[in-house]
Design brief:
Elements (H helix, E strand, L loop, with lengths): L1 E2 L2 E2 L1 E5 L2 E5 L4 H17 L20 E2 L2 E2 L3 E4 L2 E5 L1
Antiparallel strand pairs: 1-2, 3-4, 5-6, 7-8
């Protein structure tokens, strides 16, 4: 999939989609694209459950009003910390 003129990777872990984006600029475009898909399909994205995680040093504290995390817990495991 191409968003903001850049290819992104979409992965599915259980029922949780994972978007691998190059930078924060792609987030708002991805959210708009997903919202358009939601209107057509009836499926929706819970932004309050979304967790952007920077894999490199990042001074940004939130993207699209979603707090950027420095670590995540997935299926009870807290394996990734930046």
């Amino acid at each position: 999939m191409v968003i903001a003129n850049r290819e992104i990777i979409i992965s599915q872990l259980a029922d949780d989609p994972v978007l691998c984006l190059k930078d924060a600029l792609q987030v708002s475009v991805a959210v708009c694209t997903i919202q358009s898909f939601s209107k057509a399909s009836g499926l929706s994205l819970c932004l309050n459950k979304s967790e952007p995680l920077a894999v490199d040093e990042c001074a940004v504290t939130s993207v699209c009003n979603i707090p950027v995390r420095t670590s995540i817990t997935y299926l009870g495991s807290s394996n990734y910390q930046r």
